Amino acid sequence: MRCSVAWLACALALAQVPAQKKSAEKQPAEKKPAAKNAKAAKVAATSEASSSVAKSVATRPAPKKEARPFDAQFGLSLPAPRPLRLPGGDRWQLSNGLRVVVLPEPKIPIVQATLVVAAGSLADPAEKAGLADITAKALRGGGSVNFAGVKFDRELNGLGASLNVKAQERVTACTLTAPSDRFGKAAVLLADIVLNPGFDPDAFDLVRGELRSQIGKRNELADQIANREFWRIVYGPNNPSARRMEYEHLDNIGPEDADLFYSTYYRPGTAVLIIHGDIETASAKQLVDRLFSSWKPGKAEIKAPAPGAQPKPGVYLADKKDAPMSAVVMGFAVPPATARQTAAAGVAIEIVAGGPGSRLEPVLRDKKAWEAVAVARWIANDNQPGALQFTGRCKPAYTTDMIQAVLREFDGVKSVPFTETEVRDASARLLARGVMQWQNPGLLLAENEAHAVIEGRNSYVPDEQAEIAAVTREQAVAAFNELWKPSNLVITVVGSPTLFDHPLADLNRPVELIDLTIPPPPPLQPRTDPDSLSRGKQWLERIQAAMGGTDRLKAVKDFMMASEGSYWRGRSTTSIKQTDWWMAPGVFRQHQAIPIGEVTAFYDGAIGWLGRERFIAAMPPNTLRQVRTEIFQLLFTLVQSNHMPDRTVCSLGANIVQVTDDKGQGVRLYINEKTALPSRVAYLSVQPGGESIMVEQTYEDWREYDGIKMPTTYRIRHNGHKFTDMRVTALKFNSGLKVKDLERKP
Q1: According to the model, what pLDDT value does residue 50 have?
Q2: Higher-confidence residue: 653 or 601?
Q3: CA distance 53 to 616
């Protein structure tokens, strides 16, 4: 098997013998010696009486101390943070609509440029979730037309600069950081990648492979599961803010989709460039005009998502038995509100459960055994309903207890209203958090200008801070009374319910299970329209002619290929030698020699076995499926698929041909248009744990063997990462192989 290494696994059971504990034996009470005379007896009696009094005093309960509430400010009177003010800077607009803000700051010899474009995940088509993210990653990884792929990175690294491109919900931010004396050259690369993206195919495949790996690993962390499922329930699974990428979405996205997304949404009319650092406005203006004035005018429009169905309140449990801590997320969505209502709600939530200084904090601090960490936030969204979201985690045994404690604190607000001091302190904490978050003037400008591009709000961040500072006790109380509706609560819990001391049913709410199953990737679907079928057949006929002719390929009855090379295990490599044998119609044998031993695999179309030294075992289902895939994609038979009635050959456009059969197998052939020889083949491999891997096999260095051209170098990639590199050392066709030789046991 050229695409993978066969492994034999053995399990060792370890037994532990519990130590036997010996019970402690009771010792007889020690007898006191009798007093020698009356005087000694009197002294002994007096001493014993004194001891008895001392014991009674020692066991008397100590007077209770009056409990004092925890002072988060330790008795200090802290001044309110100074209100945020937007840096001035210099502003202008290019003729194509690009807005530019320059903030000179010569203290540090670094310049940071952030280009914000209205190209976020809200624009993802429903059947192509993740397109904005893939486009951003492929834009960065693919380089530009002038500096493709790795060359772009070399140019950037040579300047001591860095470039990050990240898609968010509503925008994509391209952030360039460079030394001030090399910023001009680095800015050329930024403009080049935005105006002339390369979308290198290899970089695109690597990005898609990395995302495929993330799908298979998305259920590893309980906190992430709880948060993800909470938003899916509250907003609805089809809402772009809660939609998750599946294998199906990933396989629907091709380079042409990323190119279309780029051309649609990366427009200067809805973009802003913020330059902050050691640069003069005049030189920045000259540089920006020269680099970005050729950007074709245009505007992008991202529509707000339609409101989803009202979520069903209750408790949603994801049974994750390996979670060391339980994760809890609860809350609900509320209709869009004014800026003042949003600020008041934020202050109210901060008072109840905002972390240190909140009412909930001393409750959880006193329960040390819970090991609980929890915080609540008011999530304000401009384009859809906001939400109250409480997130927490604790030891599994106390999961239900923690939820009940949180609910008591929220329910108790109506009987113990907020005080002026609580409102003042909560506002101060929120304002201080904002000051810390936006202490970098460049980041503050970037966030504020993003809102200006999308919503036309030119002072979003300062206005938000001013509203928080102006919240009164009456407003906070009114906001909480209007906001807190426990009957609307959605509670997501991730953990092992067998470890809970109290069942979730004690919450007196309906409990539903969350299915964490990751849908497997769908099989490749053939195109059946006459044009696709005709062009697919034409491509295979060209390949057959280039490889030696259809008649010569049909005459192959057996095949042997020996190869050697290396495979990657993380960052380390291991040498491997391999020999493949094949006989028509489908007898297959493979022998591998690796440092830990030798492995042989055999399959005759009905049964299969694996052998190592003298150990023989039936081939596991996953390995059996892998062997069938190997036989299916043998190159000299694969290119004859147009002559096989159980296979469908179709063109996917350009130089891509897809071959599928009626058993669910399928591959995509990428063809070199000049030589008409296959350059690579790609297919999906589903691992035992359910993870889907995109396997890509590249063919290089073609040579002729017995009149048939075959590649002599095979490079295998799993999800875009190196897996094996193999070189052919011997290859023969029609050497007279016998079945009895191939089925020989090790």
Answers
A1: 44
A2: 601
A3: 81
How far is it, in rounded angstroms, from Cα 354 to Cα 348?
Answer: 9
* Helix pair 131-141, 183-195: axis angle to 10 deg: 130
β-sheet bridge partners, residue 112: 177, 276
Q: Judge whether residue 196 has pLDDT over 50.
A: yes
As given in the structure block, the two tokens for residue 121 are 């995940």
Q: Which two tokens stand for residue 238?
A: 């089809």
Q: 183-195 and 150-158 helices cross at what angle (nearest 10)?
A: 160
Bridge partners of residue 740, in order along the sequence: none
The Cα 357–Cα 427 span in angstroms is 11
Tokens representing 293 are: 């004035």
Instruction: Give the highest mean pLDDT range of 193-202, 473-482, 562-571.
Output: 473-482
DSSP class of residue 30?
P
pLDDT for residue 316: 97
137, 97, 118, 453: which is closest to 295 by C-alpha?
Answer: 97
Residue type, 728: V
Q: What angle do CA 713, 719, 721 make, to 5 degrees?
A: 55
Tens digit of pLDDT for each residue in 266-299?
999 999 999 999 999 999 999 999 999 999 998 8
437 membership: H or E segment, kind and range: helix 420-437
Residue 312 has a CB neighbour count (10 Å cut-off) of 10
List of domains in the chain: 90-292 (3.30.830.10), 314-439+456-513 (3.30.830.10), 530-742 (2.50.20.10)
